[in-house]
Specification:
alpha/beta; binds zinc ion; 14 helices
Length: 406
């Protein structure tokens, strides 16, 4: 399981050394370059403990000395930065019409970003898992070929993911009871690294929290746009999961009882009004004349072209979809009072046309003045946010102070 931990604190209980390692690593990640004395001064750990931990972390190549010194009162200090050169983590996403894989090093630097066309909604779970495993193996091959060790792989799925990493339901993919984590492990022939699965929205908000325009924000929501619509919620710096892991399904909150049928079988859900298929159906009534849409990119290009040409029907449709989006966000704002809701996928692509109407609707439907201070913006992370969040999540074990297996 992945969670955003609250600030690790120096501890006298439990595995003190693991916790203290996490404290040191986090301080260096945020404040590098910094000296041993800086770490001791800011974390409350004593200098001898810091020195011992830093020696171990340098030995395991999680930290390195830059050789830089900082001029200040007293003797110059050797500065430390994250190393992480020998390690990498992978994140993947099952998207509407593609599979994505991203690899990062311990410092969060991207090592690889691959996107491969794949129509998961029309494939079987077995075919999708086989395709995921094939792409993962090639990425692992590339990373290990660079002499790095893969620490973990986390996959984002547009659907429900339970606490055991299985998918009881992903309506947008037509999945029921898919044991994706164990099947993927088997398809990867039981690799040495950890394999985890989470919702696309949970991973996307982890990416936002680390790399996005609202990085570091404790009360932050990422609303995914794609074949499904879901919310990844950080409340007080922690990922909100609920008792069985199913929190965040804002896409199936009903907004209009007379609205169109949803992939879940109900009517008028936020997803039925604003998901990618719903948007294409609403704006391009001829799109499904030749059968179901499998490749969304050309349809999205048509919508963008018509919007840029100020086609009145498309502009009217986008404003209406924007109002539905704002209505959905107001539910989040009333319930959770986030500092920001960041929208991804097609919501971001169509942001210039959706967001003005959505912001007005959000303000009108939220009880607190000014929507409780909630900003509503398009994600700046692009189409690989979920995969980037997956890679970030896969680093959680090391960031929590557990040393990688050599
Ligand atoms: Zn629904």
């Amino acid at each position: 399981m992945i969670s955003i931990h609250t600030e690790p604190q120096p501890s006298d209980l439990g595995d003190v050394r693991v916790t203290n390692r996490a404290v040191v690593l986090r301080h260096v990640r945020r404040h590098a370059p910094c000296s041993r004395a800086d770490i001791a001064a800011h974390t409350g750990l004593n200098k001898a403990t810091v020195s011992s931990l830093v020696t171990e972390l340098i030995d395991r190549r999680l930290l390195r000395e830059t050789g830089l010194t900082e001029n200040r009162v007293g003797r110059p200090a050797t500065m430390l930065v994250l190393d992480g050169e020998p390690y990498a983590a992978l994140g993947m996403e099952i998207g509407a019409d593609e599979l994505v894989v991203v690899a990062v090093d311990l410092g969060g630097n991207r090592l690889l970003t691959w996107r491969r066309a794949f129509a998961a909604p029309s494939a079987s779970p077995t075919e999708t898992i086989r395709a995921l495993a094939g792409l993962a193996r090639r990425a692992v091959g590339r990373i290990t070929g660079q002499g790095r060790t893969v620490l973990g792989l986390t996959v984002g799925v547009p659907g429900l993911v339970d606490t055991a990493g299985a998918v009881p339901l992903a309506a947008a993919l037509g999945w029921h009871d898919v044991a994706i984590t164990s099947e993927l492990r088997t398809a990867l022939r039981d690799p040495d690294f950890t394999v985890s699965v989470d919702t696309d929205a949970n991973l996307a908000v982890l990416a936002e929290q680390r790399h996005g325009a609202y990085a570091g924000t404790a009360d932050l929501i990422h609303l995914t746009g794609g074949v499904a619509v879901g919310a990844g919620v950080l409340a007080g710096g922690r990922l909100l999961r609920g008792s069985r892991g199913f929190a965040g399904e804002i896409g199936h909150v009903p907004l209009d009882p007379a609205g169109p049928e949803c992939s879940c079988g109900r009517r008028g859900c936020l997803a039925a009004l604003t998901s990618l298929p719903a948007v294409i159906r609403r704006l391009l009534p001829d799109a499904e004349d030749d059968g179901p849409v499998l490749d969304w990119l050309p349809e999205m290009e048509r919508v963008l072209t018509l919007a840029r040409q100020s086609d009145p029907a498309v502009l009217g449709g986008l404003a209406e979809i924007g109002r539905h989006l704002g209505h959905g966000v107001s539910v989040l704002a009333n319930l959770l009072n986030p500092e920001a809701v960041v929208v991804g996928g097609h919501f971001a692509t169509l942001g210039p046309w959706l967001l003005p109407a959505a912001r007005a609707e959000l303000a009108a439907r939220t009880l607190a003045p000014e929507a409780g201070g909630c900003h509503l913006d398009a994600s700046t992370l692009g189409p690989t946010a979920t995969a980037l969040g997956g890679a970030t999540a896969a680093l959680a074990s090391v960031e929590a102070g557990r040393l990688p297996v050599p």
